[in-house]
Amino acid sequence: MYSNLYGLSHPVCPAQAEGTPKTSASCSPAPESPLSSAEESVNGLAGDPLASQSSSIKPLSEDHSGGESQIGTPLPVPGHSGLSIQEMVAMSPELDTYAITKKVKEVLTDNNLGQRLFGETILGLTQGSVSDLLARPKPWHKLSLKGREPFVRMQLWLQDPHSVEKLMDMKRLEKKAYMKRRLSSLSDGHSVDGGLVGPDYIQGSQSPGQQQLKKPRVVLGPEEKEALKKAYQQKPYPSPKTIEELASQLNLKTSTVINWFHNYRSRIRRELFIEEIQAAGGVGPGNEGGSPSLRGSKSGEGDSCDGTESEGTVETRQGLGIGLEDHRGACKDHDMEAESEAGGSNNSPAELDCITSGFAGPGSSCGQGGLGLFSLTEASSSSSASSTNIPPSGPARNPRDNNLRKKKAANLNNIIHRLEKAASKEDPSEWEF
DNA sequence: AGTATAGATACGTAGGGGTC
DNA sequence: GACCCCTACGTATCTATACT
Questions:
Q1: Residue range of the domain that includes A73
Q2: How far is the CA of A144 from the C1' of C2 (A)?
Q3: Is residue A214 part of a domain?
Q4: What is the b/e burial string over A118-132, where b = at least 16 CB atoms within 10 angstroms of the residue's CB?
Q5: Which sequence positions fall in the DNA-binding region (predicted)?
Q6: Which nucleotide is nearest to A218 (CA to C1')?
Q7: Are A286 and A274 in contact (CB under 8 A)?
């Protein structure tokens, strides 16, 4: 199978086998890391049977040169270069994550390939993760080594002239296998219409009893979300006490509240990255109408971090001094709650400055020159370059942006003020914005 | 069916506090 | 000061579900 070809297997997680609703990371049912996949897919399969198929396939490699889609100089192939993918990631100069995801989306769409297949086969990630990555790629310099890995893989995949063919073949094989299963189960008198398709629906094989052990998914209602958002505006880092109060008020588990804050902070931060980039360079996911921020507002209600623009972002940045950079040092120490909204140190202009300039400043890991091994960004078209290579002179935001920010800040102050009044729990006198 | 979203969680790490 | 442990947070990702 291609699972092997791509160095992928879908091992049944022991925990899952036991029916323990184990989380992914520890025992990822997902696509085993296709580490070798990149290598093999690029190297070992050059002459594979797939190459002769798929006449309708739109090749990847040839249009790399075409305009803005150009992704850049090829990465060295892991196998050939003797580098593992991790080494490549570590050595890789800045890649243009937006250009890469854009290209990948293009290729997948053009060839009618799904995110699930691509994710599991090429990236070793699940569909949801792929969707997220493609829709909201973080700028390279904001990614950890682990976070960069999928982008390196995508880049390698784009470089592979047979990548699409291989994937399409995978698709066919999957379909075949599905049909086979379907047929056999039909002959057994069962139906597979449960919708389990594909090789990785391991859970589907769990017994009903095991399935029942699954925790029911928590779906927060609009009022609950609203309340949490308000609480966030008041205290992005709530104390355990606040969390408990919130939980009991909303009739939620404290862990759910904690998770919500966790996710909300994280996602807001991510939105901010993108927003910053757009503000600074105008290139990014937004350019093709896929801007997360835009999407957020599009959805109106804006959930994930939708709040981003509509409610949460500016105060986050201005009031809390939570920057785009790692602000842990600034916010961490004590019980965040108090000082985070107290503003104080977090708000130091120097820090904000550092935050903004850190974006693409010379000091950032964007490392202008990189290693020069296979520079992508530099080789990328001018449009893509701007996404991460913001001139050191600073993110020269346009005035419109600043006005907007001020407005939002004022707005949020207003909200916070009202919240203070309502809550009148903590002394807001120290709050600074 | 494929994609997007959001709650949940594993893992890594920074910083504080205690002990030696 | 070095070491260890603990806590809290960020990141990346998963899974289930909602949406298109």
A1: 2-169
A2: 29
A3: no
A4: bbbbbbbbbbebbeb
A5: 213-272
A6: B7
A7: yes
